[in-house]
Amino acid sequence: MTRNVLIAGAGPGVSGSLARLYAAEGGSVGLLGTEEDVLARLRAEVEAAGALAGSTVVDLTDDTATRSAVTRMAEHVGHLDVVHFNPSAYREKDPLSLTPDELLADVHLGVGALLSVLQAARPFMGPGGRVTVTGSMAADSPWAGAASLGVQKAGLQNLVRSIDVTLKDDGIRAVSVTVRGLLKKEGPFAPDNVARALRAAIDQDEADWSSEIPYTG
Q1: Structure confidence at residue 165 as a pLDDT band (50, 70, 90)
Q2: Mean pLDDT, the chain, as a whole number?
Q3: Strands (E), 27-168
Q4: Keywords in UniProt for this one (predicted)?
Q5: Distance in Å from the first CA to the final CA of the chain
Q6: What is the enclosing helix (H) or strand (E) of 17?
Q7: Rounded distance, CA 11 to CA 212, Å?
């Protein structure tokens, strides 16, 4: 089955691996990211894998720009089958040095931007549509040295549950894959392996659907 896939927060890591994985199945892959050179390389890799590709440089914390970018991509392909949300902000500050404004800025990117992406994508999604996000063990086992990351991932996991409940009657499901390990270049937590777990999550039986799946490698 070929799918039209939109990846928000596309980069060279897990999201790049996921883009190539979906590309190998055909369909089309839309990429939203912040670095033109990174997007250009990834777009070329997607096209080399046999899929149609499009990319847009956008600041996902800019609600208006993000909604416009999602709408343009969705109108180009006609519909969206999978929306994947990947971004997070890593700020090495503990709770005694992290400011409220910094925390809110990080949560805007790592959690709030999902609302911009989802709400713009929803008119182009139908029964069988899927929303996936890259989760992290930081949601419930945070490192105090980067306190905002744990808040982002906990909030993202919670929001995904609400999204799933809201959309399930329309046949659209949402799932967060919680990566319970540190990403590495090789081994179980290499980006390609994590991407396979994210790809597998959309094939869950709806009767036993879980909106949060741990990936332990």
Answers
A1: very high
A2: 96
A3: 28-33, 52-57, 82-85, 130-136
A4: Oxidoreductase
A5: 26
A6: helix 14-23
A7: 23
Residue with tokens 């883009």: 19
DSSP state of 121: H
Angle between helices 63-77 and 113-121 (to 10 degrees): 30
Work out whether strand 212-215 and strand 52-57 pair parallel, antiparallel, or are unpaired: unpaired
| Farthest-apart Cα atoms in the chain, separation | 50
Separation CA 164–CA 178 (nearest Å): 16
Q: Which residue from 46, 56, 55 is spatially nearest to 18, judged by alpha carbons?
A: 46
Contact between 141 and 178 under an 8 Å Cβ cutoff? The reply is no
Arithmetic mean of pLDDT, 130-155: 97
Domains of the chain in start order, with CATH, are 4-215 (3.40.50.720)
Say if residues 191 and 17 touch (Cβ distance below 8 Å).
Answer: yes
Q: Which amino acid is at 131?
A: V
Give the predicted TM-score (pTM) of the model. Answer: 0.96
